[in-house]
Predict the structure.
Amino acid sequence: MKIDKKIIKELSDYLDEFNLTELEYTEKDTKIKVSKNNVSINNQSAPSNNNLNTKLEPTLSNLNVIKGIEVTSPIIGTAYHSPEPGAKKFVEVGKKVKKGDTVMIVEAMKTMNHVPSTADGIVKEVCVKDGQPVEFGQTIIILE
């Protein structure tokens, strides 16, 4: 799939021009969503259930749209920063993590689900509090 950078640039200009935080553009089976926190592209084919959800890498950083790599919750549940109360936290701001390292646990239906980092990086922000409910796809940490 070829990404038209001109459309993304134009959409990001609209964010500033109209003081928006998020903008979505759909054409046929391509959906482009631009926000001040991230840029994502969904390519969905109606007849099949194949979904492609790709976060754009910082190669588009000249648009000043991407502020970091977002690690999101894979399920609905309760987020925990450590494996048990009083134990050392999985991550803290400034800590270096590698792809696959556990960054948090999300409990759903009495099952503790380890959430792995989706990339290497340094923790820029922890977006949820310990014991806070989280939604599917909600950003839980941001890496730089």
